[in-house]
Amino acid sequence: MEIVCFEQKYEEELIELWNQTMIFDPVSSDKFRTQVLLDENFDRELCLLARTKDRVVGFILGIKRRFPYLERGLEPDRGWISLMFVAKEFRRQGIGTGLVCEIEKRLLHLGAETITLAAYS
User: Fold this and answer.
1) Phi-psi category of residue 75: left, alpha or beta, with phi > 0 → left and psi -120 to 50 → alpha
2) What is the distance between the alpha carbons of residues 99 and 4, in angstroms, rounded to a whole number?
3) What is the DSSP letter of 69?
4) How far apart are CA 3 and CA 99, in angstroms?
5) Cβ atoms of 83 and 59 closer than 8 Å
6) For residues 78 and 112, is the Cβ–Cβ distance under 8 A?
7) Which H helix or E strand runs over 19?
8) Can you give the pLDDT at residue 24?
9) What residues does 10 pair with on adjacent strands?
10) What is the predicted pLDDT for the residue at 119?
């Protein structure tokens, strides 16, 4: 298993996995692009996929604000894990742990002292 940054070539496969695992919050390509890729705080380095040789098996989305949010501003010492999932048949193999450890490392490197697991709004 390897962890890679999101690339457009993985979009269709990622959306298929999203809809298999997040059955109460399905997405289309348009919704994914609007809510994730076009978010002003999107950072490709915090949008990670877990891959086997031939498929995407996990996903995690981290956020470190680059644009202020209302009166909260940038909250420079905070980061968020907005979303994560792992394919059912690949659970309990350390993939989720690997994704969380990698996103935490990257968020800490960007100055986050606190990382919040949050629902994606």
Assistant:
1) left
2) 10
3) B
4) 7
5) yes
6) yes
7) helix 11-21
8) 93
9) none
10) 56
Q: What are the Cα distances from residue 21, in Å, to 14, 15, 27, 38, 106?
A: 11, 10, 11, 22, 25
Residue owning tokens 């996929």: 49
Question: In angstroms, rounded to a whole number, what is the distance separating the alpha carbons of residues 88 and 46?
Answer: 23
Residue 89 has pLDDT above 90, yes or no: yes
Q: Residue 15 has which token pair?
A: 């959306």
Is residue 65 classed as helix, strand or coil in its secondary structure? coil
Average pLDDT estimate for 105-112: 96
Measured CA to CA, the distance from residue 91 to residue 82 in angstroms comes to: 19
pLDDT, one tens digit per residue, over 46-85 is 999 999 999 999 999 999 998 888 888 888 899 999 999 9
65's tokens: 């604000």
44, with CB counted inside 10 A (0-12, 13-18, 19+), is exposed
- Nearest 5°: the CA angle 80, 86, 90 is 150
56 strand-pairing partners: 51
- 105: helix, strand or coil: helix
